[in-house]
Amino acid sequence: MATETTDPDDDELLALLNRAFDGWGSAAYFDWKYGDFPGYDPATDNFVVTNDDGEVVAARRVFQRELRTPSGTATVHVHGGTAVDEPYRGRGHYSELLERSMAHSREHADHVVTFNRAGKITTEHHEKNGWRKVTLPVHTRVLSPSRVLAHYVLDRDLARTAADYVAPLDRRLTRSDAVSKLMARAADVVYGSGDVDQPGGDESTAGASTPGSEGRFEVSVVDGRSLPDDLVEELAAHLRDDIDVPYHFRRSAETIRHAGRYPDASVYVARDADGDLRDFLVAGALRKDGFTEYRVVEQTWSDPAAATRLFERLETDARRAGADVIVACSERRPGSNWVSLGTEYMMWPPDFADRDLPESPASWRLTAYDVL
């Protein structure tokens, strides 16, 4: 057995990820998250364990990001999950890869962060060791409750088969605003978090325009892989102007292009009557075992009325495509029929950096593009 920092074969690494994480993702998703990721250096960012035949049996990935802070720009290493093939578990490979990747980050990064979910072993380990955390503003629009329950909660073949029969009915039910709001309120009792500020999208604020906005918008949809250069620059400038919090990961024309290359991504753009850009969002689709999740990769909230219109159009398109759920990591709750989760975190070790990071969600701008 050998542990090394190397550029593993893409097909071999993807196969390991799918075995270790029960259908991690498609080749298109792998290309987006690995090969196409800005700044990715396969020779330094992958930590792997190989067996005597040279096959990759465990791997851990580090993503290099730039974090804007009140004191300037910091280099952040986002540590992804550690994949260990089942026959090789219990041999210390997880701890070995963790130690090697952390040693690398201590030499080359100002901060280390991970993205975790409540109830997971890694999350509980971090909490016991005093890791800090900020709750992510994750919201879901459930389009097929039976299929979401079967795939995310029960995860059983029988439940999935039953959901396939029930889904056409409950999809029609979720078209009812009253039913969807009732479901969202019930889910908030179970999953909601009072730690996440959600001022937008609620009944009191949804659809409210900013001063000067006519409240009428034209929404256009562009293939994410065919974005014109001038539109990319316009979106990047708008996004930078939209950021008004002290901590956020760097955004640029390059990151906009990369977001647009997310699997099956479309870019939704809202303009006012004068043709001025008000807001935009980027959304793509992840498919697994017949289950379809639409994910809002990036979005802005300059004008709540415009942003709300974009989410409404996205829902229409997602329903037409047979999606089961839409997921967004957004500073505002997209609507009162969305479920706000308090179960997703960004975490970091307390003793890594001289300056700690804030645990208040109000200090951060984080979207699904950041959650790696």
Blueprint of the fold:
Blueprint: E1 2-5, H1 10-20, H2 27-35, H3 42-45, E2 46-50, E3 56-69, E4 72-84, H4 93-108, E5 111-117, H5 121-128, E6 132-135, E7 138-142, H6 145-154, H7 157-173, H8 177-191, E8 218-223, H9 229-242, E9 247-249, H10 253-260, E10 266-271, E11 277-288, E12 291-299, H11 304-320, E13 325-329, E14 339-341, E15 344-348, E16 364-365
Parallel strand pairs: 4-5, 9-16, 12-13
Antiparallel strand pairs: 1-2, 2-3, 3-4, 3-9, 5-15, 6-15, 7-13, 7-14, 8-10, 10-11, 11-12
Helix pairs in contact: 6-7, 9-10
Radius of gyration: 21 Å
Give the helices and strands as they follow along the chain. EHHHEEEHEHEEHHHEHEHEEEHEEEE
How big a fraction of the residues is strand? 25-35%
Question: CATH superfamily of the largest domain, called what?
Answer: Gcn5-related N-acetyltransferase (GNAT)
CATH architecture of the largest domain: 3-Layer(aba) Sandwich
What is the helix fraction of residues, given as a range?
A: 25-40%
Domain count: the total is: 2
What's the overall geometry? globular
- Helix/strand-derived class? alpha+beta
Main sheet makeup:
9 strands, mixed
User: What is the typical, i.e. mean, pLDDT?
Assistant: 85
- CATH classification class of the largest domain: Alpha Beta
Low-confidence stretches: 157-163, 193-214
Number of helices: 11
**What is the fold named in CATH at topology level of the largest domain?**
Aminopeptidase
Got a strand count?
16
| Ends distance | 28 Å
